[in-house]
Amino acid sequence: MKKIAIINQRYGLEVNGGSELYSRQIAERLKAKYEVEVLTSCAVEYVKWQNYYKEGVEDINGVTVRRFKTVHERIPKVFSALDSEMLSNPNAGEELSDRWIEHMGPYCPELVEYVDEHQDEYEAIIVVTYLYYTAVKSIVRIKNKAIFIPTAHQEPFIHFDMYKKVFGAADAFVFLTDEEKDLVHSIFHNEDVPYEVCGVG
User: Fold this and answer.
1) Fewer CB within a 10 Å sphere, N or C end of the chain?
2) Which parts of the chain register pLDDT below 70?
3) Would you give the distance in Å from CA 152 to the centre of its chain?
4) pLDDT at residue 89, rounded to an integer
5) What is the pLDDT of residues 110-121, one digit of tens each?
6) pLDDT of the residue at 201
7) What is the pLDDT of residues 80-120, one digit of tens each?
């Protein structure tokens, strides 16, 4: 059975956010045809990304979940200052962008290293949600097998210059709506990248 990975910032029965629940739904459906492994953080909440789950591997409804610890939690005052700086300078360079995404979190550098070292084990790697550290730092390392489900919508962050590299790294897209597809194409001009539009239900 071919093996695929799904990367999302949080995953668990207690996690019911939009993209997180979507990731669990597609993981549990794909397991009928693939060996599915989810790569995620140990966090259950997204304010500070405090480690809640035990680091390591567990099984949730027949899906292998590999968790990586958050190295440091988000400090609201620090993140707020960085956020203000980025919002006033969306074309910020790599140094500021890296500090911002590290504090956006969840800061799991070991997850990124794992993707870098083990990607050849997977037929495809599905990256869900464009915004967070886990997606930003992982997708640019994936070679020729990144399926990106950005769950994008109109907000200031998607216009940050740093996301050009992220959206440019996808080998294929899955959009949840035509509106999302049109938004991504209008910002990144990547209509030539293969895509499908499909929700979940």
Assistant:
1) C
2) 201
3) 11
4) 96
5) 999 999 999 999
6) 59
7) 999 999 999 999 999 999 999 999 999 999 999 999 999 99
Token pair belonging to 51: 């480690």
Contacting residues for 130 by C-beta, under 8 A, at least 6 apart: 136, 148, 150, 151, 152, 158, 163, 166, 167
Question: Would you say 5 and 38 are in contact if contact means Cβ atoms under 8 Å apart?
Answer: yes
Q: Is the distance from CB of 19 to CB of 128 less than 8 angstroms?
A: yes
Nearest CA among 63, 22, 17 for reference residue 201: 22
Tokens standing for 163? Answer: 């996301």
Is residue 57 within 8 Å of 65, Cβ to Cβ? Answer: yes
Give the domain ranges of the chain. Answer: 3-75+83-197
Please give the Cα distance from 130 to 136 (Å, whole number): 7
The answer, as to whether pTM is greater than 0.90, is yes
Residues in the chain: 201
